Amino acid sequence: MSKRENFTLNEHLIKEMIKVNGIMPAVYRTIDSTNLEMKRRIRNGDYSASLILADEQTMGRGRLGRSFESPSGSGVYMSLLLRPELIPDNVVLITSSAAVAVCRAIMSLSNIRPEIKWVNDIFVNGRKVCGILAEAVTDKDDKMNVVLGIGINVTTDGSFFSDEVKKVAGALFDRDSDATFTVNQLAAAIVNEFMKIYGCITTRDFINDYRKYSMVIGKNVRYLEDGIWHEAKAVDVDNDGGLIVENTDGHNSVLRTGEITLRIKED
Ligand code: BTN
């Protein structure tokens, strides 16, 4: 297969490989952000696509107001629409389960061993290769929808990244010729793995795998809360995806998404 086919998203191929009925992909060569596009469509009552993918994003969005650099032809940037009837009470489970789905998908297609850095970044060989951003949006009937955005650097060359992102970002493969699967296979595998978990998300069975893939449990960490850095040891992940840390005074705290920034101590 040619390089172009390996790294160009194709909605027909993706649809063929998705094993769940009713998921309609729409592929863009370039777009500002797949999450933004899905949100625009929801606000307009347009549900014709439940999975939006792009080869390139010009305004990729990350967590905590950051951007997500999304250069052309080397990654998968996609947003899956989750409608109200499917959304569990505990929306935070969606991002944790997506992290597990990405790990399972990568492992089903390769020998790569991904790890999850709490809360939902995927690392390979100590470098971030994937970020996940779930955003809630209300539709015309005031019902909540969730847009689950996933961005993966498949073969992205470090030189594409800004100096800031270069410090942490990596890719699944160093070179295009190393890739053992196509972007279409990866996109479909992620959707298939995610929907398997999502069908029974409230059982929280996936949390065991989340713990297994965690690169944080058992490590010394620092976390930022209310503007103050705390030293602690990550001891476990609870059934809602919260990170349980043991503070230096011996007390445990549970860190929840959005409240804190966590860094693995360098020493
Ligand atoms: C993060 O690492 O902070 C989260 C990054 C999420 C990036 C994905 S790429 C597809 C979707 N569209 C966006 O604009 N962001 C998400």
Structure description:
It is a single chain. This protein is an alpha+beta fold. It has helices at 3-6, 11-17, 34-43, 92-109, 163-166, 183-198, 207-213; strands at residues 25-31, 51-57, 75-82, 115-117, 121-124, 127-138, 144-153, 220-225, 228-237, 243-247, 252-255, 261-264. The protein has 7 helices and 12 strands. The structure holds biotin.
N-to-C series of helices and strands: HHEHEEHEEEEHHHEEEEE
Shape: globular
Uncertain parts = none
Mean pLDDT: 91
Compute the number of helices: 7
Tell me about the largest β-sheet.
Answer: 7 strands, mixed
Q: What hetero molecules are in the model?
A: biotin
Kindly, what is the distance between the CA atoms of the first and last residues, rounded to a whole number of angstroms?
Answer: 45 Å
* Strand percentage: 25-35%
CA radius of gyration is 18 Å
Helix and strand content put the structural class at alpha+beta
Helix content: 10-25%
With strands numbered from the N-terminus, the spatial order across the biggest sheet is 1-2-3-7-6-5-4
The count of strands amounts to 12
Features:
267 residues, single chain, binds biotin, globular, seven-stranded mixed beta sheet
